[in-house]
Amino acid sequence: MGTDIGDLLQKRKVELSDLANRIVAIDAFNTLHQFLSIIRQRDGSPLVDSNGKVTSHLSGLLYRTASLVEAGIRPVFVFDGKPPDLKAGTLNKRKEVRESAWEKWETAKAEGDMEAAYKYAQASSKVDHEIVEDAKYLLEIMGIPWVQAPSEGEAQAAHMVLKKDADYVASQDYDSFLFGAPAVVRNLAVTGKRKLPGKNVYVDVELELIELGETLGELGVNREQLIDIAICVGTDYNKGLEKVGPKTALKLVKKHGDIHAVLREKGGEIEALERIREFFSRPEVTDDYELKWGKPDREKLVEFLCEKHGFSRDRVEKAFERLNAASGGRQQTLDRWF
After folding, report:
1. Residue 263: what are its φ and ψ, rounded to 5°?
2. Tens digit of pLDDT for each residue in 203-255?
3. Which among 180, 210, 280, 285 has a CA at the least distance from the CA of 238?
4. Phi/psi of residue 239, nearest 5 degrees
5. Which among 172, 146, 173 has a CA at the least distance from the CA of 79?
6. Contact 46, 247 (CB under 8 A)
7. 210 close to 177: Cβ distance less than 8 angstroms
8. Any idea what DSSP says for residue 7?
């Protein structure tokens, strides 16, 4: 998802402790999708309750967010609104991929190929309306704020950092930089090791910080040129130029100055080019939000997670204690902000 310009960005390893006392605007859809993809059983089946309702995302939200709060981080989750019509083609392709993956998952399970089943199951994940509403409710009873974006969540999160209402955006995608985010944290929702696709090789998943100013300085381009580079490579709103990867796109844009000159040389054309550039430069965002962190509600957490979704009461109680202790310990610090 997003644009594939990661190889061009200056990444720096950080620890959770480096983000203490900082507000992190988390791309909610991106994070929920990660939880749905990763938190699965051996055959790829997601966690479900007694009624067959998926609960993988609730498990991830509860326990991972508790770890973030314990580390002194102030998370705020930003949810996508209505996608721009420019994204229709990408959304249709993602639907096709999910449906194809679902069919392959069922076949792999029937054949007893658990490795293939797990892989295809991950690709079949979908964040639907019910998952979003349950996630918002869980965040509320955990005492964690969330913001509804009018359009793309990453654009809204970037806007919040630019306004200094947050310190970092947290997302796996790189579109945040195109929307102007000064600093982005990656791998905030996952820890441990990750299996490389198609290989029996595992790599460490490390927390990364990428700063836009440092990257632009190292590349020798400005933000508008970075947008042009991304468009050359391909974004959620357009197909990239044929046989042009990020390094080639960087060379072309630096040589010619902008994408118009690149297209004149390459003889290519990008549909709705100016609308795409405008959307990245001035996305639809809102200032209609309020960031307040509160204490978790033990009774509602037990009712929602244990009684409704079959979570272990002992584990939920422990998560509550973690959240409650951390929120109580930071109350004095919060008074500085609100």
Report:
1. -65, -35
2. 778 999 999 999 999 999 999 999 999 999 999 999 999 989 999 999 999 99
3. 280
4. -85, 140
5. 146
6. no
7. yes
8. G
Mean pLDDT score across all residues of the chain: 91
- Distance from C-alpha of 89 to C-alpha of 91, rounded to nearest angstrom: 6
Tokens of 35: 């939880």
215-252 residues labelled b (16+ CB within 10 A) or e (exposed):
bbeebebebebbbbbbbbbbbbbbebbeebbbeebbeb
Residues facing residue 25 across a β-bridge: 76, 169
Contact 69, 323 (CB under 8 A): yes
Residue 9 CA: distances (Å) to CA of 135, 184, 186: 31, 11, 12
- Exposure string for 14-42, b = 16+ CB within 10 A, e = fewer: bebeebeebbbbbbbbbbbbbbbbebbee
Q: What is the pLDDT of residue 292?
A: 95
> How far, in Å, CA of 58 to CA of 77, rounded?
14
Residue 333 pLDDT > 50, yes or no?
no
Which residues 6+ apart lie within 8 Å of 46 measured at CB?
36, 39, 40, 54, 55, 56, 121, 125
Q: Is 164 exposed, middle or buried (0-12, 13-18, 19+ CB in 10 A)?
A: exposed
What token pair was written down for 332? 């004095």
95 in Cβ contact with 124 (< 8 Å) = no
- Which is it for the CA torsion 102, 33, 88, 232, positive or negative? negative
Amino acid 10 reads Q
User: Whole-prediction pTM value?
Assistant: 0.91
Per-residue pLDDT tens for 1-33? 678 899 999 999 999 999 999 999 999 999 999
194: closest CA among 169, 172, 170?
A: 172
Q: d(Cα 256, Cα 252) in Å, to the nearest integer? A: 6
